[in-house]
Amino acid sequence: MAVDFENPKATEGGVELTPLIDVIFQLLVFFMLSSSFLYPSLDLVLPQLADVETETTPPMLVINFDAEGNSFLNSEPVPLERLEAVLRERLPEVDDRAVFLRADTHSQYGAILEIMRTASAAGALQFHFLYEEVVEDP
């Protein structure tokens, strides 16, 4: 008896491209990121123009209120009786008509509400409370 063995098809050899594409992609990302850090390290002396208007930051109105009951607009002392009139003058200069409030921890809650009512009557539309963040050392 003769046994007929079939020849299995020979597998064709080839190069797997997936790892090559991964390496090329990683190199591309590496060079893109590393080249973006080169720009700030250039030591250039840039020309200056004297007659160009610089962009200024918009004015901020900060009402400060201490524990003794004194109120300040930015750093200028303003009594509570005059606060509404002063705010009416200065609020049109502020784009969003926002008022920032800084109050002492020991100031009276009612006085802060009175300042907010006065600022609202003067035309303030937004109120932002300023505070200091405490960072604890580990």
Give a written overview of the molecule.
The protein has 138 residues and is an alpha/beta fold. The chain contains three helices and five strands. It has a domain at 61-129: Nucleotidyltransferase, domain 5, CATH 3.30.420. The chain has a five-stranded mixed β-sheet with strand order 3-2-1-4-5, covered by helices on one side. Strand 4, helix 3 (109-122) and strand 5 form a beta-alpha-beta unit. The longest helix has 19 residues, at 18-36. 9% of the residues are buried.
Quick structural overview:
32% of the residues lie in helices and 14% in strands. The protein contains three helices and five strands.
Layout of helices and strands:
Blueprint: H1 18-36, E1 61-65, E2 71-73, E3 76-77, H2 80-90, E4 98-103, H3 109-122, E5 126-129
Parallel strand pairs: 1-4, 4-5
Antiparallel strand pairs: 1-2, 2-3
Helix pairs in contact: 2-3
